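## Example pair
The file below holds two records. Each record gives the amino-acid sequence first, followed by its structure token line.
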Amino acid sequence: MEALTSLLPGVAPALWWTLAVLMALAGVAGTVLPVLPGTLLVLAGLFLGAWIDGFERVSGATMGLIALLAVLGFATDYVAALLGAKKVGASRWALIGAALGTVVGLLAGFVGVLVLPFVGAVAGEWYALRRTPPAAGRPGTARRALDVGVATWIGLLVGTAVKLALAFAMVGVFVIALLWQ
């Protein structure tokens, strides 16, 4: 592939590198702040960095590995909270509540992203439990709803940690490939 600097010779390579680094940094921040598309932004920044010299130092195969890490990070967003909730046997309503809480949390800022998925899961599980007749040996409605909320919240936190680790792995693979030459 032709180098970006030869396609647009009027733009200094330093400008492209600055843009690539800013995109990658914004992506790393996005792994924690769900308003930004975390690992996808890291991938875009690293792709731009590799393209600057036409993939001479960072090969297409290396970028393929980085893209695989990005896909894993993207999937983590959807899987982590579900696994946490499913571990304690959350109802469909709890999962819907956690998803709605996440969406509303995005609009409420960082604290909303941390708290509202928990609130949504608790509310959803509470609703589901209130609709079903009590079973012998089943924990109380409030306790059960809180257990589901906590498990969902822990799943979200673990997912965020995994995404952050994957983002740093992406950057690490890129830097090693870039400096290896």
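Second record, same layout:
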Amino acid sequence: MPTHFSPAEPPRTNPAIQELREALPDEHDILDTADVFSLLGDPARLRILIALTQGRLRVRDVAEVVGASESSVSHALRLLRAHRVVEVHRSGREAHYLLADSHVRALLELAMDHVGHSTLLHEVGHDHQAGRSCAEESDS
């Protein structure tokens, strides 16, 4: 027979579980972190960020490196700047973009290193030319 807890007596939580729960970041930090990963989840923005690991670049230079229009690169950089992932340094009419800090660089490097350790998964589970995962193909 299932045990029912009365409202006056809350269920007992394993102390180890309670300690782990209390160690979780607050909801605001979780949401901000999810936003950063969402930004990194877009291949076009990721290409831009990887290009910026080489140093400061102007919008037109980023566009040329990643093979995108200046307009789309400018839009992506505005979004990345709004989330403090990149920053801009202006000199007269010139604007140079760069990664906001070493944390962004480290996150990119870790992600790329991880990809290097999981190439078999990508070969099996993703059609790079079509840009679709095998799961997406089986759904269509």
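Notes on the second record: The longest helix spans residues 102-117. The beta strands are 86-91, 94-99, 126-127, 132-133.
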